[in-house]
């Protein structure tokens, strides 16, 4: 059977690679299926999820509840744990046979390992870490009108274009670039976790979603890597993406790192069940582990309240938090760029201001 | 024909980058603590040795990294921008290995240079005594040969010796023939831990607090005769030549701290808003900055010229004294204005200017005061 | 054993970033640095060199001035370097770039015990694609997001980070490993000895002529024109409006803030 990535007219449907860990779906699956549904509707095509694992058939239905028309399940003992070799082989084999027009993959540590390997094998382009996707050009133009500084009225667009328009931040968030892959299919994109909005789950849709089991061929010769063991870090995972309240610290805590982090924790508690984040400088200095990092190279967050303590507000940090509903910034330097995106700014020493804040918030709660 | 070339070689550019990166990542973060706690940054000295900076000017076969005086100027001035104590430590350390390289015999070079370079041991240069400061010829410490054991027996006290309490290898100036005065002065290598050699008072200084300055006490301290550096009676000449080179090092410290103060000032005047605009817009401030930058550029040119002369093997006594005199007075001038520009903030210990102002002062005093430099310069200029 | 370390010179986006009026990056105004993740890859390779005495070769694709970066890596301890440089290669996307680098390494020779180390991703593009795509083109296994690498014979044990922990992975050489920054990996400094010698170490330049006939190169998918992905539009995101700077003493500012938060029912 021949596969030619340049024969673009022979490709159909929107596909989402659905990742599982320990036999459980991950958040990006729901985000991507929800986004994929929109794209499939724009294109007038089907939305198909592809799930690789072992004994995972039962979890597939749930994906239908977010809009998938069909889930292809590839079941094999060698797929229980992720390995590049096995997953790339199975995914590419199915794609070559079924020829999807679009293939979305969550930009997790696994998705970013699998995506490029498959794109190279399929001989097509891949756009990394996308934060916005469009097929319909009119919708793309509407997006530009609100999310760019471009003068849309003076520009013309190919309104009939049906390429997937994949928008992503570049150069640390200083620039946004919209990428297309016009000559090859599938159009592949890894999508940044936490960006696409998960739609409402519908039991009804889950019931009608078609589950297709697919035969998997894997031999020992296909596997050049072996997972010796998987270790969950004992520390609590910091769920920055799901948090309502985030209190982040920056270089401003340098004179008393432990004290600064403790203050941030107390403030997060005062607001109610908040979590502590950190700027790149804080992570790079080893003051907080990397899963606390907010920003371009870390996580994109949109909590209800984001408090930035001693963070100057480098643009890659702002890229990761400026969509928070409410931003409060405390910084010694009145010219710090963080104040440009803050709703409320306080110039002052965080070691003096934060204890006052904690006290004042507690007072209102006791009143 | 264009012989005057001020550009650095590709290797020197890389050294500058390395020294700057090291200063930013290792020295600057601890500069304040080193000053506050008066603690010798031993860990950082070890790291300097690991990357070869303590072996500048020493050939590879002796554990060194090659290069010469200009390389020393590059590294020391980059350090001086961020941490004057560290610049001082490196600059003064280099005197001892340089002297051993120049005056030592092959055996001494093989034995001591690897320890002082990649081995990570600190070197010290012990000349000054309570009554022999600017008058270096007034040294009273004696080293009398004991013919029975073939050992020199040292007795006396040295003071204000930079790194003396931390050094593994010291070059000590003594009278081997006390009756002959200056002509009886010799240089002897003394190792840390030699019986009879002890550390006296550690000084509490105004600045460069991280560079431990110590009193050294010799009481019947026995050193093998093979530790004599050069010939007996050549001590004063060795000391004066070593100081010629050391002065370029102090010049490099002085331009480094000046450039560091200018960097901080430029940043501050652009950030500091008064009367509704950055104070950089005020002409009074601009004139300060212009003076600081101009004089520092001139000071650097003279330091680099002296380094060039030494590297080229040409006479450089006059230029080395001139560059040190000029750069050190400029360092005081520049750190003073920089502190002034910073106003109240500059006076606070939260900002580095206060420390730099105190640190800069030493450059007018050590390795010869400004006044002694003028004596040297005048003598050279009026020589006929 | 030879380790190829693939590196990239990138504009330093951590400081001030200048954007031209047309929305492209003003690279000339920014300092060029060695990509941070690549520094981890270099350090991992040099650690293995310390332990085994293997050969470490730095490889980059870029304009001729990228030689300076390669010399720095030699001054850190690498043995030699390869600069892949040609006008025809300019504007390549990750698919095209990985093809060219894979072809270069294939030409230089990838032995049974050899490995290729890359940084996970470059800070100018943040794609993390070139490493895996080189591995695919060379048909060798890959491990990404590595923070620890141990090698005995042909077997390599890699600590591969996940969001919520890590995997220990065993892989056969030849293989490709992409490295990330970690507290345990502090890239070493250049040494002065290394600096003094770096310009006399071998540096090979591979141009279009040298690579165009390599079997791994498809001439119609390299360079700006051949790259599968193209830029449709690039633009700068709008700045969020300036908020309120609270005034008064620390106490007054905090009270004002809490008052406003209460009115918004945030607390």
Explain this structure to me?
The complex is a heterotrimer of chains A (367), B (384) and C (267). Chain A is built from 11 helices and 18 strands. Chain A has helices spanning 27-43, 57-64, 84-98, 111-122, 137-147, 203-208, 257-271, 280-284, 315-321, 338-341, 350-366; strands at 12-18, 20-21, 24-25, 47-53, 70-75, 100-106, 126-130, 132-134, 165-170, 175-180, 187-191, 210-214, 225-232, 245-249, 275-278, 305-309, 326-331, 344-347. In chain A, helix 3 (84-98) crosses helix 4 (111-122) and helix 7 packs parallel to helix 11 (350-366). The longest helix of chain B has 37 residues, at 235-271. Chain B is 52% helix and 15% strand. The two termini of chain B are 32 Å apart. Chain B contains 11 helices and 10 strands. Chain B folds into 3 domains: 10-116, Butyryl-Coa Dehydrogenase, subunit A, domain 1, CATH 1.10.540.10; 123-233, Butyryl-CoA Dehydrogenase, subunit A, domain 2; 237-382, Butyryl-CoA Dehydrogenase, subunit A, domain 3, CATH 1.20.140. With 267 residues, chain C is α/β, with parallel strands linked by helices. Chain C is built from 8 helices and 13 strands. The longest helix of chain C has 17 residues, at 36-52. Helix content of chain C is 30%, strand content 27%. Chain C has one domain (2-226): Rossmann fold, CATH 3.40.50.620. In chain C, the strands form 2 sheets. Chain C has a 9-stranded mixed sheet with strand order 9-8-7-10-6-1-4-5-11, with helices on both faces. A two-stranded antiparallel ribbon of chain C has the order 2-3. Chains in contact: A-C, B-C. At the A-C interface, helix 3, helix 4, strand 7, strand 9 and strand 10 of A face helix 3, helix 4, strand 7, strand 8 and strand 9 of C. Strand 13 (225-232) of chain A pairs antiparallel with strand 9 (165-172) of chain C.
